[in-house]
Design brief:
By secondary structure, this protein is mainly alpha-helical. It folds into two domains: about 80 residues, Winged helix-like DNA-binding domain superfamily/Winged helix DNA-binding domain (Arc Repressor Mutant, subunit A, Orthogonal Bundle); about 90 residues. It is built from seven helices and three strands; from the N terminus they run H-E-H-H-E-E-H-H-H-H. The protein has a three-stranded antiparallel sheet. A hairpin with a 7-residue loop joins strand 2 and strand 3. It is elongated and about 70 Å long. The termini are far apart.
């Protein structure tokens, strides 16, 4: 999946590995995390597959820059990915853990849901700042379509999901606190 995130970014404009990493951190990290080493490893693999190409820009006293570009094969790969229907929640580590949660003692279950609530609150706080990033990023690249609207769709989804998780986890926590203990 990482390659599709990279292809999507390069479909907007040519970027260095540093710029791709920054874009992941600033925008895509709300729903897809990637480390710098993963991005560079994937870029090398994608270049070997002919999905991207690179050119070296002399730095004139500064380090040279390796600028990555999407190829026609890369555009075709991205288009095929975008047309593929993705199943919702085919895997959820969270729900797998919760399904077997009764194996833990009550304090561990309370701690688990308390941490989940705190993480959800942090995510909501980060997501609330993301709309300004959408405006900033859309001015950074030369857009020829409605990309910011679709970026907003992903932001809206993230906010709704986090609110749902927060509400659900809070409800679960209350029920755990009120359950009669069999521990």
């Amino acid at each position: 999946m990482l390659k599709y995130g990279i292809l999507g970014l390069l479909n907007y404009k040519d970027l260095t590995g540093y710029e791709i990493n920054a874009s992941f951190h600033d925008s895509l990290s709300f729903f897809w995390n990637a480390s710098k080493s993963q991005i560079y490893r994937e870029l090398n693999k994608m270049e070997k597959e002919g999905l991207v190409s690179s050119s070296l820009i002399k730095g004139n006293g500064k380090p040279d820059k390796k600028v990555m570009s999407i190829t026609s094969k890369g555009k075709e790969e991205l288009t095929n990915f975008l047309k593929t229907k993705t199943p919702l929640f085919s895997r959820s580590p969270l729900l797998l853990q919760v399904f077997f949660m009764a194996s833990l003692n009550k304090e561990e279950r309370i701690d688990y849901f308390s941490c989940l609530i705190e993480e959800s609150k942090k995510s909501l706080s980060s997501l609330s700042k993301a709309s300004s990033l959408i405006k900033e990023y859309s001015s950074y690249i030369d857009l020829k379509n409605n990309d910011p609207m679709y970026w907003g769709f992903t932001l809206e989804y993230g906010i709704l999901m986090e609110k749902t998780i927060l509400s659900w986890a809070s409800s679960c926590l209350e029920r755990i606190k009120n359950e009669s203990s069999l521990d």
